[in-house]
Amino acid sequence: MIDVGIIGGSGYTGGELIRLLSNHQYTNIEICTSRKFAGKKVSDVHRHLKVFLDLEFEDVSPRDLRNRCDVIFLAVPHGTSMNIVPDIMGENTKVIDLSADYRINSQTFEMLYGIKHTDKRDVTYGLPEIHPEISENHLIANPGCYPTGAILSAAPLAKSELINSVIFDSKSGITGAGVNPTHKSHYPNMAENVQPYKLTSHRHYAEIFQELSLMDESLINVNFTPHVIPSIRGILTTAHIFTNKQVSTDEIKSMYTEFYKDEPFVRVIDNIPTLSAVKGSNFCDIGFEIDVNNNRVVVISAIDNLVKGAAGQAIQNMNLMCGFDETEGLWIPAMSP
Predict the structure, then answer these.
(1) Is 322 among the catalytic positions?
(2) Domain for residue 330, yes or no?
(3) Residue 80 burial (CB < 10 Å; 0-12/13-18/19+)?
């Protein structure tokens, strides 16, 4: 049994971490922090967790956390983790950061987020399907939600150096914007509407390009445009992948099946993925169709942005770091319909 701490436990991701960890047989949630709700019961903020957790939010120092916890999840705003990590990293403490602070190199981070990076250490990117070295590390940068679906949709083709160019068109549920209401998530603006934004300049592009170019150094033509849709959860990514040679349906099916054969949370399916088939689960469903006239492979990936795109993947990383079965606490089907 390990003791777990969650820094920033009052948001959607914090609530999802608690929900999933309550189903994990080897973890005890020792502490959840929140300055705003310190002293208030966690289940009064996350009402769906009533009877599952008898704990109050606390506001404690990072060093106190290190002394009380074996594993610490950071679910805090970008630019915050880098100020906390040096104080919570102990000899035996494992940390999974769900912010962007360690996902990309410090120079790129400073350019995209406008924040000076104060802890310029090398950190493993926490996408388990392409980074087996996660199990050997004590600090992991949990990927962004958009990059998770995008990278997984294209990784087998990138690894085979078959991509000439790729266009990622991603559509996310409203929870991707966080728990605090915004103009974009306001119901009258969102209902019966689809909102494209950051058409060519979304911050998550850097992660997508970084990881795909590590697989294929010659890959330079990568494009990404996000949208918000009137759905609570989920990200559906359509990847238009233009290949440098003609490929067949059987070749692509064999390539994707082989690439993900040992990855329990990626399902390569024969039809078109849907959000309803992954909602509430840690699965990524991938389907595709070949456009033989244009050397184009259209790959669709579907994930739950709060699970495989955030909290579930963080727990998957924890399992690998701690030597647990990768699926522990996460082997649950989606909520459908």
Answers:
(1) no
(2) no
(3) middle
The phi and psi torsions of 203 (rounded to 5 degrees) equal -60, -30
Interatomic CA distance for residues 56 and 146, integer angstroms: 32
Given 32, 69, 145, 284, the catalytic residue: 145
The CATH code of the domain that includes 249 is 3.30.360.10
Examine the domain organization and report whether 49 and 156 are in the same domain: no
Q: Stretch 121-150: mean pLDDT, rounded?
A: 97
- CA-to-CA dists, residue 46 to 9, 54, 140, 310, angstroms: 10, 12, 26, 17
106: enclosing H helix or E strand = helix 106-113
- Residue 188's Cβ-count burial label (10 Å; 0-12, 13-18, 19+) is exposed
Is the model's pLDDT at 129 over the cut of 80?
A: yes
Domain limits at 112? 2-122
In a domain, 241, yes or no: yes
With a threshold of 0.90, does the pTM exceed it?
yes
Separation of alpha carbons 70 and 92, rounded Å: 7
Q: pLDDT tens digit string along 5-14?
A: 999 999 999 9
Per-residue tokens: 306:
């709060």
Mean pLDDT of 286-310: 97
